[in-house]
């Protein structure tokens, strides 16, 4: 029996049972029920026919009309026939709106339910519904169940009617809402039992946990949601949430002939087509479009049926819906402890084609033309459609605990209990969408599992060794195509290989357009080094963003390195125990221009590259940057005033986007080298010797004249004594004003071994508070000390402000410098800069001013304009010229100015090369 729901969706049931049912105080009536595990939302769903037999009425809430059903006697059937008005052809396996005529005066003016005849019709099916017999004709949706066109003759009987009788009052009224879509299987009770057992067995294999309670809860959940798991292709269903549309604009249909098919595969292809027809995957087509099929053999000896849609794809308007970034997705999994992955059963085929696009999916075979009713593989926008559907399906929870890349679903949680709850949410959404998972490809409750070519663990990600093994046996490439394959694979895992760009540079050079593949010693070394690096068991740990923001000891660290070949950066983060662990490796080659940079510029470029590469991690988070290039540290302190325009520009760019704390990392403590060898320091001692550059959390150096005990004592007696007392004893002053001031200052200060520091909120620097008795000595030491140079008050203030602070520091510096006698005796008097002289002329042609203006290439291939202006009269001549060569300038000036107006006495220009040359001098 072929069953469809109200939307024309094919229905399969496990079987039909006849059960006695009765309303209270009434005799039992036998009703037929289909058995299914589909998500109805209730244990039993009763149809309108059964409700009518039981004497119930349906209450339509929208208009408060109560109706019941009155079945017509068999003798009245001839008066309630519905027949076709015209001769109509029904397309195969599709629904067509057919005009029908209602024959029977008995129904005039009444509402009636249209349904198929009790005698099963194996050719077509009528969608049940209420129609009005007030008019003699109506339109009815009829589904052709055959794979060939079906013809309905004029006057041919189609179905029968049941009268709807209005009732003013009725007892036992039952309110009916929307029922769930019925997607069941036509199975016997034994087959139902076998299927349930098979799902249980598959689930046991898919569950990777050893926690008994978690296993029990998940098995219960899988039992409740067993309808979302498909065991074979026959259980495949389609969702109604989205359809795949192919937009070709005004393009003419593309028709390609069927390709010759190997004789040995003809029977297999014919069987596959018949199977697809029977399952409603494809149908016969009369489309003007046609694409050829392609048969791809699988490893198990079967054949994959594909369609070559390259012709269609060439005229399809591309869908720019973005795919998730795999690296970003993986880095979102920090602190997750339990993982599950799920895969759809032929995911593309669970999405219907848009009715307007079905004909464009047509494909030609030796047997005829067919078209897909579901989204086929190979269409250019299929991936975008599926990803958009996944984003919509998991809206609100996406990238929180569910992560999706096309049809690969990952669920990640912090505990088993939380994970079971998350899985139930996912199962429910999949059920609501009417989708099916392939349980054989699912993996549940794992602490470590493969995902997108990586191995996910509780600590981080590793390379999937099974994916890496083939590349370890890769022979030395002899063609550019083979080399591209090798480098393409290595590039996917480049985040695991420090200085990948530098190592692979010799191989990438062979990919240039005119280069021939010539493997020398340098290329062989690069090839073998990459294979060695890819085999290393490197773990990239998950970032802890909360710790990076709240704990200064666990800030993100970027280590950089640079050379003429390439630049590299490593993103790291210390653990609670102080171990520095890598999160991400990044590198690239230097281009031709960058290879000419000075060492300092290359090191600055590496910092810029690392910061931008790791922007997703470090934006708005203070980050330490370690460089082994000492000269770079003071350049970052000057904030764009280094004298190197290129480095200045990079520094200003970085400071506007990130909070970078640049520090010098001596060569003997080169942790980047440790990263390269994968030997990270077990303790932070190695970091202790890092000298402070731009920003540090370390205590500033004391001046030579300072006694520590005296400094601490003076701090306790200074104007900051209330704050010091609060830090030492947690006691607030009695005075309300001082109490309020102390509480306001406390978040920005800290006390270290009796010394008071203020933390700069913008940079993170610690500035030492200077008691009043040491301020004058400190300024004099910097201004007129043994190593001082009697600098200005502004420069003295800038030097002191890097390490120290006190109120009115700038004014104290100015006052001390102003009293310096040596400065007063040796200071040169200020002299005014001479102003510009006014150019005066008394007659025309006394002075002519020339300049060249660039305007871009015109249709006449002119790129510049020569402008000639007489200084006295302001007479201007502008002449377009193709270039700025001396001969071109001279010719244009002579022909368009001198020959017309005469030669000038003097010529004024900006002394560019086009004006200062022998050619123009000879003319003048």
From TrEMBL:
Biological process, per Gene Ontology? DNA integration; proteolysis
E.C. no: 2.7.7.49
Matching entries from InterPro entries are given as:
DNA/RNA_pol_sf (IPR043502), Integrase_cat-core (IPR001584), Integrase_H2C2 (IPR041588), Retrovirus_Pol_polyprotein (IPR050951), Rev_trsase/Diguanyl_cyclase (IPR043128), RNaseH-like_sf (IPR012337), RNaseH_sf (IPR036397), RT_dom (IPR000477)
Q: What class of enzyme is it?
A: transferase
GO MF, one annotated term: endonuclease activity
Q: Which UniProt keywords apply?
A: Endonuclease, Hydrolase, Nuclease, Nucleotidyltransferase, Protease, RNA-directed DNA polymerase, Transferase
Q: Which domain of life is it from?
A: Eukaryota
- Show which residues constitute the signal peptide: none
Integrase catalytic domain mapped to chain residues: 840-924
Q: Does the keyword Kinase apply?
A: no
Q: Which GO terms describe its cellular component?
A: DNA polymerase complex
Q: Where is the Reverse transcriptase domain?
A: 277-456
Protein name in UniProt: RNA-directed DNA polymerase
